[in-house]
Design goal:
heterotrimer, A alpha/beta (259), B alpha/beta (215), C alpha/beta (466), B: 215 residues, Rossmann fold, six-stranded parallel β-sheet, 6 helices, globular, C: alpha/beta, four-stranded mixed β-sheet, elongated
């Protein structure tokens, strides 16, 4: 985490921003986040009018379009006290890019700042926000994992210890090192299609590193990067896969906690 | 008609000033912190760094020893490039050259193997020699020959570049401005341009010998 | 140098097929990246970060005072006996250099590295006028011999293998065949030594100009910088106006941070300061010294929201850290400056229309900002340039349409849900085989997951009733 003086989320109601990709492609990741937070006694709600944070349009340079989508986000979360998002890149968009996006817009600027100040990435919320390092979990059988540090989470939000701390305290877990774990996988949003060949080459390097890593599963905090890496791993017939850390942690919950 | 100078300056002045609130720094963090600045500490650091960069340091306790080191390095050469003797911290060097029949060639002779200079200072932090150009302190001496021998007294060693700059400021920058050029020499010349393989000895000297007179 | 940056995508495709080059580039960049990491933080992370801030402060302060500092530098150079000339455009620089050439009856020139001179094509002008020009930095010399262009601003030929260089020397210099790097370098040294000894004029760039003393400062490892400024009669320093720093102390910080950031050296072998030509009492050194302050688009950047880009000290750390640069090498970027800084200043110096793909040639991973010794927010500038491309109508129609549809679909929760259900319905249990239209590049290298039977919100509604 970066040292940024946010208000403590302890005791507050947490609104889940599930992200467009989790909503449509990986709902189990969304449930994993809910289950873990509720297991910790956190009250979780889901503002139904949420869609997307606007990042794809913003990163592509289409700011007017991104702004309209971001306004919908601000509207959807207007009653939120704390927002949790299982994505470092969406977290970056909301916390760091919304100020640029709304710099000239007095109507939404202060709301964007408020929303930015109450938004937490999933592992960040638990470890840095709630101060919980050990979830007292146990995986059903031994597993080895390694981390891929998704770029925005790592370099903008300062995340790298949080996920490792949480996972490290789970029983039946061993953690390996992924070579070049902090090197970009090549996703970069629309970069993956606009510069498909370069993206594919960067992915290739990441896959080589994944294949030669002793861990069975690679963990990541961003489903967008995860989709890109898994897309390549399956295309290249690799046995390895990348999973979202929330899902793996949720597998360690006591049986009654899972929905 | 507006000159290029006018056009450039006008354009810069008319523009909204970048970083308008930024003040000059009052205190500078040294790039290499926490050096032992005792006399012994400075010598040790200088020697360690100079060696790291591929220089060879000949530590001697007297002038006589220093001159012996130099003549060992000269081997069979009877001609060298050299700064004027008054700029080399070895008063008897000139006489010894005469005795041993060593000639000092034209300062720009490119065929000479060894060049001998003094030094105008040294920086412990980075193992660097400071060479100021001036009358009798030829540039080519430390540049053309494949072997450069620099005579340095341990009392000349400063902690770092920051201290040397502070010294220039103390003396008044006008003195510094009077100099045509200064070079900091940190090791023999090198290149890694061919497949990132480091090799020593490119255009400048391939060997740097520092005869360090201590005490 | 001609800008071919609009061809980034095909040039990258070509680069991706050159396995040998990719291995060379990857090795060089990761080595330099790791060396930098070790040296910048050898006194601890806090100290290293503080140095970056100090370096950033020095460059930003200089930028804020730029016009005054340029005048101060000029006055000091004049007092030192050096002549100062100002050039608005690249053509003007070339003319000024030719004026100096004629004035001093120069027939041959030796050059140490100057990226500015590559911007303006100086060598071509000199050669066209019958002047011999020899690059003396070994990497640049190799580039010149091979009629190639540099692919990195600090180590220009990381794209070439040793074997390629060996063959080049055999072909162009009649070098006896050898695979020994030292022998190859010594051979080049002998060839270039002759050039140094007989050249009439030496041209350098400048890493820094100290305003308060009137000093051109250069850093080199090979000694060629000293050669070109000590042996010929005339020294011409061609320096971008943004190279000015205010104080001697600023310079002391920067001249040590630069090599740490660039190659992981604590200091370069030669750190040179030039105030003026030789004094009358000296018997070597140039009799004449000229400093040419070059604008060539910099004042436009100064006046824009991208002024920060002018604080760059040309260390190359960003391209060493950049996963895109590591993958494609520097030639794909199509101009003098590759990598992240190149992606920003190429459009700024040449017009966005001449470098449209470059702001998009990045996954925005942020490594560049993380390593930049003067803390330039390169990712932010890339994002701003992408926005500029859109605002200036330089974006392809299919993206404009596509993202408008995306916005419509995401502004309304209802449309969002309908769209999701539609995608699920169309693809069924099967992952989409080929993504449509401009997204088809995805499917070239990746499978796509299947859409969930029920979206998260559908499930929430069912289980939690809201």
């Amino acid at each position: 985490m970066i040292d940024d003086q946010r208000e403590s989320p302890v005791g507050k109601r947490v609104s889940l921003f599930v992200t467009c990709m989790v909503d449509m492609l990986y709902p189990e990741t969304g449930w994993a986040v809910v289950d873990i937070l509720e297991y910790l006694g956190v009250q979780v709600d889901f503002p139904m009018r949420q869609t997307c944070c606007g990042q794809p349009g913003y990163n592509a340079g289409h700011r007017p379009e991104a702004r309209r989508v971001a306004i919908q986000f601000l509207r959807a979360f207007k009653d939120a006290e704390v927002i949790v998002v299982p994505s470092g890149s969406c977290g970056t968009m909301i916390r760091h890019e919304y100020p640029s996006l709304f710099a000239d817009n007095s109507r939404w600027r202060s709301e964007a700042e408020r929303i930015g100040s109450i938004t937490w990435e999933f592992t960040e919320l638990i470890v840095d926000g709630l101060g919980i390092k050990d979830l007292q979990l146990r995986l059903p059988y031994p597993h080895s994992f390694a981390f891929h540090d998704a770029c925005h989470g790592l370099r903008v939000l300062g995340l790298s210890l949080e996920g490792r701390t949480l996972l490290g305290n789970v029983e039946n877990v061993s953690i390996e090192t992924l070579a070049e774990a902090d090197v970009c996988c090549g996703f970069g949003g629309l970069f993956s299609v606009k510069m498909a060949d370069v993206s594919g080459a960067m992915l290739d390097r990441k896959i080589k590193n994944i294949n030669s890593c002793p861990a069975q599963i690679i963990l990541c905090g961003d489903v967008s990067c995860m989709t890109h890496m898994n897309g390549g791993l399956s295309r290249q017939n690799s046995a390895k896969r990348v999973r979202h850390i929330a899902e793996v942690l949720a597998e360690g919950l006591p049986k009654e906690s899972n929905q | 008609m507006a000159t290029g100078r006018d056009m450039i300056l006008n354009k810069l002045r008319v523009a909204r000033q970048p970083y308008p609130d930024i003040e000059p720094l009052q205190e500078y963090l040294p790039v290499v912190p926490s050096i032992d600045i005792s006399a012994e500490g400075l010598v040790n650091r200088f020697v360690e760094q100079a060696k790291k960069l591929g220089g060879i340091v000949h530590r001697v306790a007297s002038e006589v020893e220093a001159i012996n080191e130099i003549f060992d390095l000269l081997r069979d050469d009877n001609c060298v490039l050299s700064w004027s003797f008054e700029h080399i911290s070895l008063p008897s060097l000139s006489a010894t050259f005469e005795v041993r029949n060593i000639k000092v060639a034209d300062p720009r002779d490119p065929a000479i193997r060894v060049g001998i200079t003094g030094a105008d200072g040294a920086l412990a932090a980075t193992g660097s020699l400071v060479l100021v150009a001036g009358e009798g302190k030829y540039r080519a001496t430390s540049l053309l020959p494949p072997v450069h021998i620099a005579v340095l007294r341990s009392s000349q060693i400063l902690p770092d570049l920051e201290s040397w700059v502070a010294l220039q400021r103390e003396r008044g920058l006008d003195d510094f401005r009077e100099i045509s050029t200064v070079v900091l020499i940190s090791g023999p010349s090198r290149t890694a341009d061919i497949a990132m393989q480091m090799i020593m000895g490119m255009h400048g000297p391939a060997e740097l010998h520092i005869v360090l007179i201590e005490g | 140098m001609n800008v071919t940056s609009n061809d980034f995508i095909p040039m990258a495709q070509i680069a991706l097929m050159d396995d040998e080059m990719r291995v060379s580039v990857n090795q060089a960049t990761t080595t330099a990246y790791n060396k930098r990491l070790n040296v910048m933080f050898e006194a601890g992370i806090e100290h290293g970060e503080a140095l970056r801030q100090q370096a950033a402060h020095a460059k930003r302060r200089a930028l804020s005072q730029l016009p005054e500092l340029l005048e101060q530098a000029e006055a000091n150079f004049k007092a030192n006996g050096a002549e100062v000339l100002w050039a608005v455009t690249g053509d003007e620089v070339n003319q000024l250099v030719m004026d100096i050439v004629r004035r001093h009856e120069v027939r041959s020139v030796v050059k140490s590295k100057s990226m500015v001179s590559e911007e303006i094509g100086l060598n071509h002008i000199l050669e066209a006028n019958g002047i011999e020009v020899v690059e003396t930095d070994l990497g640049e010399y190799i580039v010149q011999l091979d009629h190639d262009t540099p692919s990195h601003i600090v180590t220009p030929v990381i794209h070439k293998s040793k074997a390629e260089i060996r063959d080049l020397f055999i072909r162009e210099l009649d070098m006896p065949p050898t695979d020994d790097t030292s022998e190859m370098a010594q051979f080049a040294r002998r060839v270039l030594r002759e050039k140094f000894l007989h050249a009439d004029m030496g041209i350098t760039g400048g890493n820094f100009i100290i305003a308060e003393t009137g000093t051109v400062c250069i850093v080199t490892n090979e000694g060629n910088g000293r050669m070109v400024t000590s042996l010929p009669r005339v020294h011409v320093a061609i320096v971008g106006i943004e190279k000015i720093v205010e104080t001697f102390e600023d310079y002391a910080t920067l001249t040590q941070v630069l090599p740490r950031s660039a190659t992981g050296q604590t200091i370069t072998v030669y750190t040179h300061m030039y105030n003026g030509p030789r004094k009358t009492s000296e018997s070597d050194g140039p009799e004449y010294m000229y400093v040419i302050f070059v604008d060539n688009g910099r004042s436009d950047i100064y006046a824009s929201k991208y002024a920060e880009a002018l604080t760059c000290i040309r260390c190359g750390a960003c391209m060493n850290a950049c996963p895109v640069y590591r993958t494609t090498g520097g030639h794909a970027y199509g101009w003098v400056y590759p990598g992240p800084i190149g992606a920003v200043i190429t459009p700024l110096l040449n017009g966005l229309g001449n470098a449209k793909p470059l702001p998009h040639a990045s996954s925005l991973c942020g490594s560049c900002k993380q390593v930049c010794p003067v803390d330039i927010d390169l990712p932010r500038m890339l994002l701003d340039l992408r926005s500029d491309l859109y605002q200036e109508g330089k974006t392809e129609a299919h993206w404009i349409l596509g993202l408008k549809l995306w916005a419509i679909g995401n502004q309304s929760p209802l449309l969002f849900e309908i769209g999701g259900r539609l995608a699920r319905y169309i693809t069924g249990d099967h992952p989409p085989k080929n993504l449509p239209g401009p997204l088809s590049g995805w499917s070239k290298y990746r499978d796509f997951p299947r859409f969930a039977k029920k979206s998260f919100r559908q499930q929430w509604r069912e289980r939690r009733g809201k």
